[in-house]
Amino acid sequence: MLKRLTLLIAALGLITGCASATVQPATPPSATLSEVEGPADTTTPSPVPPTPTLAPTDTATPEPSPTLEPSPTFTPEPTLPAVPSGMTVERLNPALYAVRATTPGTNVRAEPSAQAEVIVKFECGAAPLLLDAIAHGDASASGPAWYHVADGGWIREDVIQTHADVKEAEAAAKAATCAASAGTGGETDYTPATQSVWNFAQGQDNLTGTCSTGPILPPYGLVQITPGGDTLTWKSQEPAPYVFGKVKTNVYAYSGPTALGDGTVTMSLTFTSATTLQMSRAFVPNSDPACTHTHDYTGTFQWEVP
Fold this sequence. Notes:
Layout: H1 2-20, E1 88-99, E2 106-109, E3 118-122, E4 129-136, E5 146-149, E6 154-156, E7 161-163, H2 166-175, E8 181-182, E9 188-189, E10 196-202, E11 206-209, E12 221-228, E13 231-235, E14 242-248, E15 251-257, E16 263-271, E17 276-285, E18 291-304
Antiparallel strand pairs: 1-4, 1-7, 2-3, 4-5, 5-6, 8-9, 10-12, 10-18, 11-18, 12-13, 13-14, 14-15, 15-16, 16-17, 17-18
């Protein structure tokens, strides 16, 4: 009995000891804050991988292109007009303007020669002509230089005025004294005021009287006329000139021996305009004194003599 009591007391002691013992939890203790890992990523992954964002690139500002200087336009030198052999020609820089300030008009010729074809008449007071070149060494050996007209043709330097300014030239043309002088009876006097050259063309020989010889050919072509108050000197291809006396306005006459001494001649000259004239020539040869050879001439102004 006593033995049972002892065993009961021992069992109760064991039970009491177990009840007083600290029960350890089944779950491990929580970790300290320093030991806690970051919260798990709860983001739902995208089925398409994200496109990486490229860093913006710097936009390069282009350097301005250098401004190219324009290339100079090549302007060829104008061709100098052709001149006869033995003459020289040079460009006028600056150009000049020609004015005809006196009567009669003067000729513009195809070449720089007194024998060249007349292509136009440059009248007194006409609009100025533009001159672009000058030639020296006249092929006909008469001396003066010739100006080239920009529109074509040549004109002698001694029969025109030249101006460097077109306004001055226009004013000079307007101020030109172009009216022919009036004769004592009110008739217009066309007698040249200065020495000039005329071209004479003759008609056929008209024979009258008793002639033992046939027709003759008298002098013709260029004639130099020099006014001298009431006289007029007429110089042709004959060895000596003739001096005409004034009969009336525009009319001059000569009667006497020929320059060749081969007979007598009577000439009557009439200016019909500032640039034209008519003349009759009656020749009686010493070798055939009963015969008279008569020729009618027409004359055309060519140029003034310096």
